[in-house]
């Protein structure tokens, strides 16, 4: 198989968590209603990027992401299918869910990331990864929770720095994208991108691929086929999904952060 810049056939595998699933970017059904509870009802940045690549390439797109996935889930439940897909491009965006859990294990996270990245690199895939932004700033967390989360994100980013140094590929620094800090780029939970946020991510990754020599029409930044902000839809999401999620994460991260604060003050 010849791919990359000269051939018009391109395999793209997306691994990760809810951001890569596309949560926050619902697509309409045939009646124009938002559908966001059934498999395949989310679009998201990876699908937008795959569609953009398809303007020039015959794209085989495989989205293996799972909502709530940790690095261990990617390693155990997504990697084998990704390797079987034999991707030319493989995106890996995961780890934030690990930072929000009481089971946080930075050694395990680093090992999982290296195993996944190394396996994809070994079959010739171009890795697409990130450096994460300060989630605490976007979420508006209390100071003690924000410090705790930021410390873990720093460790996670250090692991991604190692991946980039060892395996190369393309890396997007989310902290350096000012559009991602605009309120319109985030869903009501301020954790999952909105349609505008997903489009910004797709465009940013597309620019990296264009710089690498891929020739295609970049993803559009203008909303199309999704849904404009709606307080009714936002409130429905928060009641049914957002509040329970926030409650689970607070139970996980809160006690650890409180203990950390006590230790610092002691």
UniProtKB/TrEMBL annotation:
Transmembrane segments: none annotated. InterPro entries: GDSL_Rv0518-like (IPR053140), SGNH_hydro (IPR013830), SGNH_hydro_sf (IPR036514). It comes from the Bacteria. Residues 14-200 form the SGNH hydrolase-type esterase domain. PANTHER family: GDSL-LIKE LIPASE/ACYLHYDROLASE, PUTATIVE (AFU_ORTHOLOGUE AFUA_2G00820)-RELATED, GDSL-LIKE LIPASE_ACYLHYDROLASE, PUTATIVE (AFU_ORTHOLOGUE AFUA_2G00820)-RELATED. It comes from Nocardioides thalensis. The lineage of its organism: Bacteria, Bacillati, Actinomycetota, Actinomycetes, Propionibacteriales. This is Lysophospholipase L1-like esterase. Pfam families: Lipase_GDSL_2.
């Amino acid at each position: 198989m010849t791919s990359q810049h000269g051939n018009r056939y391109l395999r793209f595998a997306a691994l990760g968590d809810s951001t890569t699933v596309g949560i926050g970017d619902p697509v309409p059904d045939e009646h124009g209603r938002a559908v966001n509870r059934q498999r395949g009802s989310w679009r998201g940045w990876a699908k937008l990027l795959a569609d953009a690549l398809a303007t020039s390439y015959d794209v085989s797109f495989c989205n293996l992401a799972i909502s709530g996935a940790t690095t261990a889930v990617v390693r155990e439940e997504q990697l084998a299918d990704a390797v079987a897909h034999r991707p030319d491009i493989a995106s890996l965006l995961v780890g934030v869910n690990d930072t929000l859990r009481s089971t946080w294990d930075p050694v395990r996270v680093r090992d999982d990331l290296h195993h996944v990245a190394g396996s994809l690199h070994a079959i010739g895939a171009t890795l697409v990864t990130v450096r994460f932004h300060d989630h605490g700033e976007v979420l508006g967390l209390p100071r003690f929770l924000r410090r705790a989360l930021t410390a873990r994100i720093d460790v996670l980013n250090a692991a991604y720095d190692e991946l980039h140094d060892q395996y190369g590929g393309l890396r997007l620094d989310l902290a350096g994208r000012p559009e991602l800090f605009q309120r319109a780029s985030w869903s009501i939970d301020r954790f999952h991108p909105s349609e505008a946020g997903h489009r910004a991510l797709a465009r940013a990754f597309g620019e990296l691929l264009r710089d690498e020599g891929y020739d295609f029409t970049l993803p559009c930044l203008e909303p199309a086929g999704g849904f404009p902000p709606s307080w009714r839809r936002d409130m429905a999401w928060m009641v049914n999904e957002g509040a329970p999620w926030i409650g689970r994460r607070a139970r996980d991260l809160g006690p650890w952060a409180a203990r950390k604060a006590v230790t610092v003050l002691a």
